[in-house]
Amino acid sequence: GDSVTQTEGPVTVSESESLIINCTYSATSIAYPNLFWYVRYPGEGLQLLLKVITAGQKGSSRGFEATYNKETTSFHLQKASVQESDSAVYYCALGDPWNNAGAKLTFGGGTRLTVRP
Amino acid sequence: DPKIIQKPKYLVAVTGSEKILICEQYLGHNAMYWYRQSAKKPLEFMFSYSYQKLMDNQTASSRFQPQSSKKNHLDLQITALKPDDSATYFCASSRPQISNERLFFGHGTKLSVL
Q1: Of B97, B105, B106, Cβ closest to residue A102
Q2: Which residues of chain A, if any, have pLDDT below 70?
């Protein structure tokens, strides 16, 4: 089956430091999966941070970036300078672009990020 | 204001009992889903519905039965509860039922089965 592996948390960084959360995927039945980063801020529901559906492309949102690398099957999340408000749990996920039954996603285990002021 | 309402937020049940988890969405979406996250496990897909019809079911057990009485409702009935059913259950919705569409999630119902 398909699977997603991401940096095990918790991860703690200081404000203004750079951040990378690793994500690699295995999609045995999907040649070019859709890739997503979702985030859950404290007290809020899980929400989409960014998505990329084309290999080689980069997605960005709220200062975060992730590039879809087909060769290394990776989709690492990066930010040059984190803020305290970035403290949250981040989830990498993949989906089958040919699945017409909806957004059936395979999620990684989540990475809890704490940003120290 | 939350656009996807899940009730209750917390639920404690005894083994063998039956519970219904409520989900209502006010986003005007046609597709609704249930996901589950057990302790130490990733969030996993359970069901997808579109226009109140089941599209996909990845739950092996028939003890889990979604119920859609209205277009914006997708409840989850769980019968003969087991301790392994303890998890946080998330309802989600999206616009068309296409694979790369953005999912909107509720805050979850945390179920503990004793």
Answers
A1: B97
A2: 101
